[in-house]
Amino acid sequence: MDGKVFPHRHAEPRIGDRPGEAAGRPRLTPVFPRFRMVWWQFLLAPSLGAIILVLWEILARSGVYASFILPAPTDVVERWWSLASDGSLMRHGAVTLREVLSGLLIGLTAAFWLGYLIAKNRIAAYTLTPYLVALQAIPIVAIAPLLIIWFGSGIASKVIICALIVFFPALVNTIIGMRNIAPELRDLMHALEATPLQTFWHLELPAALPILLGGLKVSATLSVIGAVVGEFVSASEGLGYLINFGRGTYDTALVIAAVYTLSTLALTLYGLASLLEYILLDWQR
C-alpha cells in the first residue's frame, strides 16, 4: 500500500534481539529493579532521621549550647529509660491515654449524629451551623481555663477539651460524606421501599465510610493535642504535666522524652485508624 508501514504489522527481527523477541513488540521490564526501588523508598525516611540524630548529637556535644538547653539524643534516651524503669512514664502515659480515648469517643459520637442530622435536615443545618462555626473559631486554649473552673481539674475537663478539638473535623467529614451520596442511589433505595434504617445501614453508612474514616485519622492525632492542652492548664499527672514539670525545672531531656512519647502515641492512634480503614474498606478493593 504505497510503501506505508502500518502500526499493527510486526517488523522483522533485528540483530541484537533476544531469542523469541520480535522487534516492535515491547520488552518486559525486569521486576527486580522496581522491587529494589521500593525498598530504597522505605529507607529514605529512616536515613533522614539517622542523619538528623547524628547532627543533633554532634551539635549537643560541641559545647555551643548548655546541656539544659540542648541535651544530646543519648541523654534523652537515658532520661526516657529512667522514666520507663521507675514506672513514671507508664503511669502518666496511662492517664493521658485514658483522656485521649474518652474524648475521642465522645467527640466522634457527637459529631457523627449531629453531622448526620445537619446533612439530612435543612432546618437543623441553617439553625446550628453558625453556632458550630463560632464555637470552632474560639481557640481552645482560651476556653480551657473556663472548663477547668466549671468541671474541675480532674479527668472530666480534659476529656471535654479533647472532645471539643476532635468534634469539628469529624462533623465536617460526616456532613460531606452524607451529602456526597449519589441521588440515583437514594432513588434506588426509595424504589425498593427501604426503611430509613435500611437506607442508613445499606447505603448511607457504606457510601460515607471512606470520608468518615479519613476524618477519624485526623481526629485521632488531634485528640492527643486536646489532652495535652488540658494538662498544660491544670493537672497533677499525665504527659502534659511531665512537660510542664520539666520546663519548670529546666529538665529539657524530660521535656523531649515526654514529647517523644506523645508523638509515639499519636502515631499509634493514626496507625490503628489506618488499619481500621484498610479492614472496613476491603470491599472497595
Could you characterize the architecture of this molecule?
- The chain is mostly helical and 285 residues long.
- It has 2 domains: 1-64, no CATH class; 73-284, MetI-like (MetI-like fold, Orthogonal Bundle).
- It is 76% helix and 0% strand.
- It contains 10 helices and no strands.
- It has helices at 31-61, 73-85, 88-120, 122-137, 140-151, 155-179, 183-191, 196-233, 239-248, 252-280.
- The longest helix is centred in the last third of the chain and has 38 residues, at 196-233.
- Residues 1-11 and 28-35 have low confidence and may be disordered.
CATH topology heading of the largest domain: MetI-like fold
CATH class (first level) name of the largest domain: Mainly Alpha
The number of distinct structural domains comes to 2
Q: What is the typical, i.e. mean, pLDDT?
A: 84
**Structure annotation, total helices:** 10
Helicity, as a percent range: over 70%
Tell how many strands the DSSP assignment holds.
Answer: 0
Q: Which structural category fits the helices and strands?
A: mainly alpha
Distance between the termini: 48 Å
CATH-scheme architecture of the largest domain:
Orthogonal Bundle
Shape: globular
Strand content: under 5%
Order of helices and strands: HHHHHHHHHH
Low-confidence stretches: 1-11, 28-35
What's the Cα radius of gyration? 28 Å
Q: Look at the structure and name the CATH superfamily of the largest domain.
A: MetI-like
